[in-house]
Structure formats: C-alpha cells, structure tokens
Write a structure and sequence with these properties.
The structure is a homodimer. Chain A is α+β, with helices and mostly antiparallel strands. The first copy, chain A, is 55% helix and 11% strand. Chains A, B: Residues 283-451 form the Acyl-CoA dehydrogenase/oxidase C-terminal domain.
Amino acid sequence: MPIYNAPLKDMDFILNDVFKAEDFWQGNDDLAHIDMATANAILEEMAKFSKNVILDLNRSSDEEGGAQFSNGVVTTPKGFKEAFKQYAEGGWIGLGAEEEWGGQGMPKMLTVLADEMIWATNPSFMLYPLLSVGAGMALNNYASQEQKQAYLPKIYTGEWSGTMCLTEPHAGTDLGIIKTKAERNEDGSYDISGTKIFITSGEHDLSENIIHLVLAKTPDAPAGSRGISLFIVPKFLVNEDGSLGERNTMGAGSIEHKMGIKGSATCVLNFDAAKGFLVGKENEGLAAMFVMMNYERLSMGIQGLGASEFAYQNAAQYATDRLQGRSATGVKSPEKPADSILVHGDVRRMLLNGRANNEASRAFAVYVGQQLDITKFSSDAEAVKKANDRVALLTPIAKAYLTDTALNAVLDSQMVFGGHGYIREWGMEQCVRDLRISQIYEGTNGVQAQDLIGRKTIRNNGANMAEYITEIREFVATLDDSLAIKAATLNACSEVEAITQFILQQAKGAPDFANGVAVDYLHAVGLLSFSYMFAKISQAAQAKTEAFYQNKLILAQYFAEKVLPGLTAHIAQIKASSNLMMQLPEDYFTAQS
Amino acid sequence: MPIYNAPLKDMDFILNDVFKAEDFWQGNDDLAHIDMATANAILEEMAKFSKNVILDLNRSSDEEGGAQFSNGVVTTPKGFKEAFKQYAEGGWIGLGAEEEWGGQGMPKMLTVLADEMIWATNPSFMLYPLLSVGAGMALNNYASQEQKQAYLPKIYTGEWSGTMCLTEPHAGTDLGIIKTKAERNEDGSYDISGTKIFITSGEHDLSENIIHLVLAKTPDAPAGSRGISLFIVPKFLVNEDGSLGERNTMGAGSIEHKMGIKGSATCVLNFDAAKGFLVGKENEGLAAMFVMMNYERLSMGIQGLGASEFAYQNAAQYATDRLQGRSATGVKSPEKPADSILVHGDVRRMLLNGRANNEASRAFAVYVGQQLDITKFSSDAEAVKKANDRVALLTPIAKAYLTDTALNAVLDSQMVFGGHGYIREWGMEQCVRDLRISQIYEGTNGVQAQDLIGRKTIRNNGANMAEYITEIREFVATLDDSLAIKAATLNACSEVEAITQFILQQAKGAPDFANGVAVDYLHAVGLLSFSYMFAKISQAAQAKTEAFYQNKLILAQYFAEKVLPGLTAHIAQIKASSNLMMQLPEDYFTAQS
C-alpha cells in the first residue's frame, strides 16, 4: 500500500525560516493569537488524520469504482461518511473561515499546508469540503447578513455542504452563453430551470443538505457575461427556524465516469423551476462566483503539490528498496545481489525533479497564501492594493503552473517504479489519473494562461509584472554571490522582463498574437517564480551548516542548472511568429493528412 | 464514440514522395514484386479492418474491465476472438515474415504503417499478434531448422501465438540476476522452473497453443548476463506430427490490474519443471532475445504514433464542432452562438503539436523501417553495415523519443476537450492510460537513453552519431534556402555534434556522468531526428503548389519555430554538472524533507 508522511519539518521551515510567519502574524491584530507552536500543532493533527484516516480510503474508493449513482441518489465510497464526520468535528471545514460564523480564522498561509496533506492522501475526499469552503467564501463576500446567518454556520459544521454550478453541456469556458433561466416570483425568490454538468459534490450522502450556488440568467438580462446572476438553490429548502423543509425541485440526473477522482461525485444536475435566492444583485453574479473560483484555483495548485509530494515519497522509498544493476563507479552494496537504483543518475534526476517541484510549489503556495492574508487582515491600504495585484497576477501561475509541473513530477515518480508503476496496487497510476483533472477543471490551464497574458499583463501594460520582477530583484540582491540561484534568478528576471515587453509590442498590432503564445509565457513566469522561491529558500538556509539546510542549497542549484534552462526554450517559442498557426484554414485540421 | 480514419494520403506521401519506396523496392530482388499500388491496397485493407472491426472493441474491452482471469484461464474481452481470427485469416500476422514459413515477405517500411493503424485503434488487441511476430523473428534468426519448421508456420496462421518471458519479481532491467533455472534432461530437453512476471499475452483464449520464449540459467552458467540461455516452452507440448500433446507444467498464476491496455492479459507465469527446448547455444540467449526485443522497441514507437494520430483526429473534430468564445480578430461565425474553438491560437498550438508529432513520427518510423529493410534485403555489404549501425543508433530514439513525444501530444489532444477529455465516454482518457505503458515496457525510456548514450555513442567514441549527422547535413544541403527548416536542421546538427563531443570528454573522467544526462541527450537527438524528417518532408513538398504540400511546409516551419527550440534547454541541462546529483547521500531521498 502507498505510504505518506506529512513533510512537517519542511512545512515548519517554510513558515518559520522562509516566511517568518510568526513575525507576520504578530504584526496583525486578527492573527496575533497564532504562533508557530499553534501552527505546528494544527499541522501535526492534520498529519495524523491524513495518514491514519483518509490515505487508505483513497485506494479502496478507486478499487470499488468510486461514488455510485442510483435513482438520483449518490452513495460515496466506503468510509467517506465516517471520515467526513471526523473531519467536520475536528473543525477542519472552517479552519480558514470567519470566527463569526463558526470558523477558526486561521491564516491562508497555514491552511494551504493543511490542505496539501488531504490533497496528497485523498483528492476525491478533499473535493467534498473544498466546495463547501469555496461556497462559504462566496457567500461571506456577497450574500446578505440573513443569508450568511442561515447558511454559513451549518456549512462549517459539515451538517450542510456547498457546490458551484457553472458549466452547462454547451457552455464551459464561455459562461456568457449559459441557458439556465431564473424567473422572479412575487415573494422575491426565483424559479431556476436548466441543466448543469460537471458539478463536483453535486449530490452525495455526506451532509443533510447541499447548498448549490447556481449561475443563471433572468429573462431580461443583457446578453453575454454581463447578464449572469448568482442564486442559492438548496437541495432542501430551509424553514425560518433553520430546520429542513421540503425537497427542492432539483436533483442529480447521473454522475460521470471519469479517468480518476472516482470517489468524487461529478454530477449532472437538473433544475426544474427549483426555488432559488438571489445573492447580491441581478447580473452581477460572475464577480461573486469568481471569489469562489479564485479560491478553487489556488486549491488546484495545492492539489498538484499534494500529488507531487505523495508520488515523490513513494518513489523515493521504492528506489531505496529496489536493487537493480550496479553503480558505474564501482559496486556500492557488495553484500547484495545488486545496488539500489539510487546509484543511477537518471533515477536521481527523476526524484530530484519531484523534490524540487515539491519544495518550490510549497513555498509558492505559502507565498500566495501570505499575499491573500495581507488582503484580508492588513490595515495598510497600500499593502492591500499591492497584495491584491500580486494575487491577481499569480493566481493563474498557482493554478496552471503548479499543476503542469506536478503532472511531470508525478509521471517521473511513476517511472521510477518501472512496470510496477503501471500496476494498480502501487497507487502510482491512480495518482496520475487523479491529478490530471487539476489541469482541466476550474478553467483549463490554457485558459489560465490567457488570463495571465491578457487580463493580468497586457491589460495593465505589464505594470503588475514589472512590480513582481522588481520585488524579486530586490530580494535576490540579499543573497550570497556564491549561490548559483542568485545569478540564475537575476537572469530569469531579465529574460521575463524582455519577453513581456516583446509581447506588449506584438499584441498591439495583432489581437490574436497573445493567445497562441500564452502557455509558453505562463511557463516562463512560472519558472521565474520557482526560481524566486528557491532564492527565498536559499536565503533562509545559507547561513546554516546542518545537512538539512545545506541540502536545500544543493536542491536550489539543481533547479537552477537542470530545470530553469527550460526558460530559454519558452522565450524562443514566444519570439517565433505565431501568425503561422492562424494562416492554416480551419478545414486543414480535420482534412485527411 | 471515438472516430478513426487511417491517414492513407499521408502514408502514400511518406512512402512514395518522401522515401521513393517503389524505386527502393524495384532495386532489391526480393522486393521487386511490390509496387505502390500493392502497398496502398494493403494499407486500404488494414484501414477497413482497423476502423470497422477493432476500433469499437477498444472502448468496450476497457469498459468491461479488460481480460479476465479465473483458475488459470484468461478470457479475452468480447469480440477479440473473432477479430483475431479475422486478422489471422487476412494474413496480417505474417505480413512481414518470411514466405518460406507462411509469411508475406513485405518490407518493414510498409508493415510499420499497417501496424500504426492497429496501435491507433486498439493497442490491447495489437499486443496479441505483436508478441507472436517478435517470437517468430527471434526463432527465425536463432532456432534450428527443425524448430522453425515446427513452430513458425503455426504462429503465422494464428493457430499458435508467442510470448517473451524475461522479467522476474526481483529482476527487470537487470536480467543478469534472474533466478529461473533450466536443468538439462537426458533427452536434450530442459526442465524450466521459476516465476516470470509482466508477461504480455502469457495466457489467453485466442490461439490453441502459446509458444513461450523463456530466459533461464543452467546450473553451471556464468554469473550475470553472460550466463543466460533461451528456451522454447510451449503451453502444450507438440507431438512429432505437429499435433498438440500434453499440457506442459506451467501456467498463469494471475493477471495484473493495470492503468490501461486492460484488454491485454499481463500474466504471472509459473514454470514448474516445465519442458523447454534450447534455442541456439547455452549462455547465448540474450542475443536471440534482443532480436525480438529490438523489434518490440520499434513497435513501441509505432504505438506512440498510433495513439498520437488517434487522439489528434478526435481532438481536431471536437475543436471543429465545439463552439465557445469569439475570435480576438472579430466574430467568425455570427450565425452561431459562438465561434469554433479553432479560432484560438492556443487550441491550434495543441493540435499542431499533435499533427507535427504524427507526421514526423510516421516519417521516422518509415525511415528506420527502410534501414531495417536494407539490413535484411540488400546484397551490398557496406550498405548493410551502415544500415545496421543506423538501426542500432536509432532504436532507442524510435522507442523512447516517439513515445515521450506521443504522451505529450495525447495529453494536448485530451486538453482540447476540456472537461470532456476527462470523461470515459470520449475515449481520450483511455488513450492516455493505454499509451503510458509504451514509455515503460520493453526497457523504460530512461534505460533507452542509457543505451543511446552508452553502448550506441560513448562505446564507439561517437562514430555512429557522426555518420548520422553527416547524412543529415548532406541531405539538408539539397533544400531550398528559403525554408526555415533548412537552417534550423543545420543548426541542430551543430548543436548535437558539439554536445556529443562534450559528453565524450566528460564521460572519460566520470563514469557516472552519462547516466544523469542521458534523457536530455536522447531528447536532443530526437529533436534533431524529427527536424531531419521535416527536412525530408519539405524536400518532397517544396516544388508542389497544392495546399496539401504547402501545408506540410507550414507544419515544418511550425516545428522549427515552436518545437525545436526545446533543444537549447536540453543542451544547457547536459552542460550543467550532474555530479551535484550524486553528492547527495542515499538517505537524503527518504529523509523527512
């Protein structure tokens, strides 16, 4: 069976040494009660839950075929119900939520690390509370006080859960063309009718009620994305006293059969004049939904990190135990029939790709988490503005780059197992299947790249990117000159700066230039970001002599020498004309080649 | 349901225009009876079989859970038996085999294209005849005349089938440590005892008998890979008159539950003093097995090509049909609610990655096929020597590079589908799962890279690589200067030449240097090889004005500008010190990070 041990020591290093979390917390009134001892105690609890409760359920739920559907009812895999109860009772659902509504008010830079452990050990399970937390966040930002009072406390106790209902059969990326209708009733409620697909946790048996957040259009709404409203559509209507009332006229028509995350119920939901309640104002639903969506997007990056850490731990253990071949520099274990495969440079290359990805992704998640904490807790308006810009710029990196690199890392870890990596019992192939969705859902990684290059860069003429690069340059200046990561990061700053200018120039004359180079740009910025994280890690480690820290400097150098050079290729590919692609007529693609 | 139409026009272009196949065939006595009309007729027949018979069985076999095992008996998925019968009766098993034993004597440069269609439509099915053909090839090269007479004709009619039994629980890459024993009997036969795992087609219901080719060690054999012998171990012993005799004391203990290729039975085989017959001489078994192994390795490349073509066709069709968003240069289909997603550069980028991979891989497969045909059919000893060197050099590229690029291409095609790519019914996620094994089996791609950099390059001091680069340079000189692929390929020649010299120098002082950079080197040589193929394609297209040919020049330019720049990154990564990786102590990898 697969193993997992939460990387608590590295988490402490990242929070304490790299991001000086305690100083940061002590500097904010709302966070001053949190210290590293509290943080580590929380992480240790989650380490136990992830290892002892949900890890084994991950394999068993996949083996039994995942969530089951019958006559509108979804049964979650064996053990999920008890685990969810335990999770809810532990207060984990509201870990980062407002204390006013029953949450624990913990900072994001801490909750991302707790989340990493659940993503690592059971991504299907994670998707149930995840949607609750996201729905809670959207409601907290946009719902009325009465709505918050009615829904939030029950969501954080786990008695109820949440969903986000966006996609329809014909409308995924392009929400402007959704068809779900909302007709206003005299009592102020709405009748919601339509079909939503790919609804994660859309129906299940873990909670008494499910609070669906549904995008729909009123009859007189403007066309396109400016005419979308957001509605609360509970599975069971809620009486004034908070008890459950009648069943709403909506339900699951089926669940999808998927490549992975089989334990997560992905539902087709049919709304048949179901009673819904407007959140915020008509036609302003997309903004509210994007609070939730942006939260989910950072979560997808953590899904990538979790999978990469899980796969790495198992591959490293396998490589240590597996005896095969001999070292080229002479037999290392003469008493054994063969040396461990760790004597082979190529095996180390695959493992170090994973290890470097884990450590950079974790630092990046905490970095973005800290920026989010600034936006939420800081009283310094300028700092909040700056952090908001940074979060906006880096959300597509967190979602797309962290999941793209995670897939590569997980594929490398699977390869370390040779043929055994392809066999179900080792759990590596499931990890690949479960992870793959992270690149697709909540806006495909291609769409994230469009967001980065368009809304987040071209629209502000590169100002956000320029500020980010300035921050990196200023930080890196504090590093020892002897560290390879210093020159490498400064060089990456210059490369990304220059290619950003190139893109801004090219985009002026050719409105479809950016689309074709967006993914290369996202990877270029992602590589720079990971280089920045290794610079931060190196600064925290450079003065310390213990092997734990010195090995971090070696890993940073490995990244600079063996991973970062990919930047050059992305730059060259952006510089090559992308007009070429658009020259080909549409029928070229399906014509007999 | 997924679609597939064999790319017959491109296959004709590759054979006829690029490789001038008819001239080549007419110049060889044994092939002079084959012309393009015959070749195209064969490919058209296979196009029908692949589309009409086995395509639908691919999805259904996966849905029903693949091959089933019960009490030592393997039942193949519904429809496989009838399809295999039809395949055998069509003479497809022996398409490239010697006419003396019932084969059709067709050249490899043609059979690779027929194989592509089966790999594209049903890789699980393909694995049954594949092992028969490989076993036939090993026997034809190393078995006695009596053995050939006894086994080959029945293999090519499909009455019997074949396997290769190498791997044991503790021994995969390192065959020198296998434990299966062969004890000589007085009658000259051997008693074979041991356990083999991961045996593709090791047990099934498609043929009356299964001829296992088994590696084992005699009691007094030298240690390591110099003491391995090869044995024929039939499932049913064969009487003198060719009829089936008693059941041999061997059989399947279980089958593996895998990520994909579920229709293919991957067996644990237990040999309990089973009767075996030596092939060739004792202790020389590995050479015979490698005839088969090298054949399978080229086949894995074709598996990659087939999957990439299949995924591309489905993605291109989906992109054409899927309406979502609007073109940045203005609405393209005002009569529709949205434009087709082909208006987005990023969608074209993903599709063109697939298309470029398909066309370069296909040309490369035919190129290697032609070299194999020269080794088999040419009477010019120097040409045979040269072709043998070329095949040896390029087999790891065919196996590993074509499958690595295929996985990327298939992942891109899956991504074109958005969320639908993750749902089973579209067949894209199965394509990813089925393809993934091609990078792992028959020697992992990491092991292929070791073969390329070690045995095929360092061992001959780069002579084979130098000859290959000379051939490329001479060919490319004939291209129009206006074609971007010309300068790009010449530049790639210089880059690969220089990095090969660098590797030869570095390897002298550091015996484990090569291992850590091998995969980067394989990808560098792979990129050069694909560039060479696009140079060949461009030369055949440059004088022709029809869109079919002009579009090939655009695709070649796309490759030069958008794919080939990856070469720079691999070169930089090779140049970076790999000693760094080896500095870390073994326990670093499993220590708490």
